[in-house]
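Hey,

Quick one before I head out. I ran the complex with RUQ overnight. Inputs first:
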Amino acid sequence: MTMTIASRCSPFASLLPFALLAACGGRPNAPAGGGADVLALMQARNLSEQDVNAALKTYTPTGRHDEYYQFASGGHGGNLIVIGLPSMRILKYVGVFSPEPWQGYGYGDQSGDVLGSVQRAGHTLTWADMHHPALSETGGDYDGKWIFVNDKANPRIAVVDLSDFVTKQIVGSELIQSDHGAAFVTPNTDYVIETAQYPAPLGGGYAPIETWNENYRGAMIFWRFDKQKGRILPAESFAIELPPYMQDLADAGKLVSDGWVYCNSIDVERAYGGNLEGRPSLEAGASQNDMDYLHVLNLRRAEAVAKAGKTETIAGMRVIRLQTAIDENLLAFVPEPKSPHGVDVTPDGTAVVVGGKLDTHTTVYDTMQMAKLIEQKQFVGKDPYGVPILDFQAAIRGQCEIGLGPLHTTFDDQGFAYTSVFIETVVAKWSLKDLKVVEKIDTHFNIGHLVAAEGDTVSPDGRFLVAMNKWALDRFAPVGPLLPQNFQLIDIAGAPMQLLYDMPLPLGEPHYAQIIKADKLKPIDVYKPIGFNPFTEAVDPFATVAGKERIERKADGVHVYMTAVRSHFTPDIVRVKAGDTVHLHVTNVEQAADATHGLAIGSHNVNLSLEPGKHCNVTFKADRAGVYPFYCTEFCSALHLEMAGYLLVEPQ
Ligand code: RUQ
Ligand code: CUA
């Protein structure tokens, strides 16, 4: 058999991976796909053996599911992107901070309530700068239940339910004016961490920027998450006031360091710009010192302090003031090299890896050692606000010489760390044991974050890593000056690392992503029982039963109780008077998987997605007399085009 394959596929047979040999020779008499044999295809498409090897590792035949889900931030698109691995097929965009027409997200009453639930400075927001998704965890491992995402521009946190991939809640506090160290969860998802980035007066309001040192502050918010309800409880959440440095990324301790939180900072120089006012630019001013401060917070103690009521309420948020945090010994600093960025706790929880953008090292801090030094109050100094400082050398395990511009670090199951190196534009693989680089692989280009399968849990999977590159340059067919980002799938199962696939991501700049084993998710396929409202998570009081469709005129307007089923809406004629407020209540009474209908009413910005069993309410003003067709927007059946009706707005 082997001989037959070898002779059929020569001259490269010995070089080809086994799977390919099987493909070209497994059925000796069957022609390869499309009638051409594999070698001819390779030649025709100018593919190397390495290319074919990569293709075999990612190609996923029809009907076969991916092994992993990657949840990627949609950046300033404000949506969450769901990608299958290893195929890199996009499975879904989930509307979170931006309206999502396909899902009707932001167009119905309740989905609009979620999207519009946090206003800032009196403004309704329809976009976000999403950075860091965080999957919910139990015991430090992803549990596949929820995912949290942040909005850097208008500090908010959203809760996305992974049973139906729908955004259920958005919270935000006017305490802070931006965030970056978010969203990160504690190992049992008791808290979702949101840290401010750019200092401002706490709670909003104005203070002259010259009074930065006195009046501007940072803060870290601990949003309490209730796993029973699947919701953040703002009233049980609290914050810690921080000095006016620019706090950057954060991470929660795990296992031995469970109960500790780490956050780095830039601009301990407290520069605030003014390059047209005779001061150095913010960028130059913030890069003067050799060291910034890694913040080490004792969350358990902070929780007790908040519980004891040693807080002040600012903008509705309970805040542990900085002096209280110092007095209670729940905050300490450790120097960290030049303009740090990523802070990542190792799978065993014994260390925190910090990448310094203007340094050539990653610094590995010893979590237990820092806890000990803090408990014994072995400090070597104080910052201008009185926050105690630990000795750098005493706090670290060591440093790894990485290369130019280390940013973020993720981990595998073999004791290796993988750091994105922005300036060098490579992934550096290094050993956590002896802090030595073992291998580097090029990325294309300017890698930002990177993520390995379950790489920030207590039990990483290894196998795959995705480099999330900022620039694509020449990788794809040109599409004008605004280029997509480039996600590169890398095989890390063995050495050397192998680049498998380039995926353009043309929708805002994603920053971070997380990768979870697919079998941890158990999404529903239809809403049950019929009339279920995903946003209230109950059968809607306005749910309509087949046979009970009706139109009722009430004090607050005209209520239309409608059903949708292949291939008609009932009622299909709706008569109202100009000036009426219309409350449309629509239930998709079907229970067949994928039997989704849509409901669009032209000229009124009405657009609903009616998945099987789902109920939607939408309220709109029929202010202008006219004849407005409505119709189904999903090609649901052979008579889909006939699934239509008329909104007749009669003159008064
Ligand atoms: S941060 S790479 Cu939010 Cu690194 Cu973007
Ligand atoms: Cu329902 Cu098309």
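The radius of gyration is 28 Å.

Talk tomorrow,
K.
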